[in-house]
Amino acid sequence: MAGHGMAPAWFTVGLSAASFVALVVAFITGIGVAVLSATVAAARAGRIRPTEALREAAVDRPGVPRVRTLLGLAALACGLVMVLAIPLADPAGAVDLKNVVQSALLLVAAAGLLTPVLLPPMVRFLTWPFAVGTRASGLLVRQNSLTAGRRASAVIAPVLITVGLAASILGAAGTADAAKDRDLRRQAAKADYVVLPGAGTGLNRTVIDRVEAIRGLDTTTIATTTLFAREPAISILHFEAPMPIPFSAEAVDRSTLLTFPAIEGSLAGLNDQSVAVDRSWHKHVGDVMRLWLADGTPVTLRVAAVLDAGLGDRLVVTGGNAGRALPDRVHVRLRPGADRAAALTALRAATYGTGARTVPTARWTAAVGDRQQRQTELGLVVLLGVAIAYSALAIATTSLTSISGRDREFTVLRLSGATRRQVLSMVTGESLLLVTTGVALAAAVSALLLAAMGLALGRLVGSPVLVVPWSALGMIAGGSTLIALLASVVTAGLRLRRRVATGAGD
């Protein structure tokens, strides 16, 4: 992460007392969950009377456990509240992946818990041709999935988690990056060129003075700094953080080349005693804000403008409130009638030998967008990589366990005249049906989340571009299908071969 600019160069991961405690807790939690799961299963088996065990059937009891249904409805309600809160209460939160991940986890958990309720109508819809068909294998696939709902739900759950989280988070991240890229291009729309510093440095005063001295140019110098503020309240029930938290702010010397449409006030009135905020702060012109500069100096600034741009809780101040932050770019626009070639030559001369460079605005916005996208992708690899790996293991183990307990069913089918190939065809059909059901549920969850995100971004940046990572999702869904098929079909084939070899079932 440090090598890709997502963490400071000095960042390392070492074993400390806190991390040691976290590792121990994780270890104990893993063993505790495994022991608890085995204990619950053993307790349920122990409650079966001997006479009931003699007439046990491999068919689920009708109905869905009440506790599971209640937990699923509670998770669904919480997830829907969070999803609706994004476009209604806090549209700027649509680009915050923490909100997306929390909403996705709740909705995926709800779908997983409610799978036994959702499974019958989905299976009937996906297999309706087999209900009137004459192929026995298709009818068996349909009826096995309907009558063994608990087993089917166990197979669907890891597929739902894998594809649902990947689709929701990857799609949300791509959509947020597209919105940020559009916001950046809109911000710099008036500029023809951008003067940038050398790697790891800022623009010194000498370079800025040279650029501003060139005739026929309008300039705006921007320094990215940090301001500390109380988190803006988004509802009456807002609980304020115990301490101010950092927000990225832009310090400008003048607003000539900034494209921030104002709802109230104007950037023209911005000075060292004022601040411009976007509407996500829920402030009005004339309100007073208590802020802290990057070095901790407290300041009280009056709101001079409320901007119609709300990606990321935007704050705009003057250079007097930038602290020690050096400018990181100068936006440059040629005045009407200016000689473009001469101006560009003068810009290159002004930055010669300083490490600074002049690039067209379009190239700069594209480079910034690419860098943000690479960092987002790396963060998602860190976030989703382990989750997808464990979900893949879960798909394999649940499919394998599901098949391992069906020896009696396979024996009955063989005694009824079904060939080994027909049995394996039935197992293949079941696996494909259950994986398809899991993918369909995941698609519904991600579609709901992206729709809410689109509504939120529509209020901020106009018509948003919803990004669906089809290639990544295709690979994940295809990999999940392949794992489920291999685990189920190979296991079934080995068990059928073993029973035939020992004379069982023939």
Structure description:
It is a single chain. The chain has 506 residues and is of the alpha+beta class. The protein folds into 2 domains: 252 residues, no CATH class; 158 residues, no CATH class. The chain contains 14 helices and 10 strands. Strands 2-3-8-5-7-6 form a 6-stranded mixed β-barrel. A hairpin with a 5-residue loop joins strand 6 and strand 7. The mean pLDDT is 81.
Write the element-wise H/E pattern from the N-terminal end onward: HHHHHHHHEHEEEEEEEEHEHHHH
Overall structural domain count: 2
Mean pLDDT: 81
Mass-distribution shape: elongated
The major β-sheet equals: 6 strands, mixed, barrel
Radius of gyration over all CA atoms, rounded = 30 Å
Catalogue the unreliable spans.
none
Rounded to the nearest angstrom, the distance between the terminal CA atoms is 59 Å
Helix content: 55-70%
Strand order within the widest beta sheet: 2-3-8-5-7-6
The class by helix and strand makeup works out as alpha+beta
Note the beta-strand portion.
5-15%
Q: How many DSSP H or I helices?
A: 14
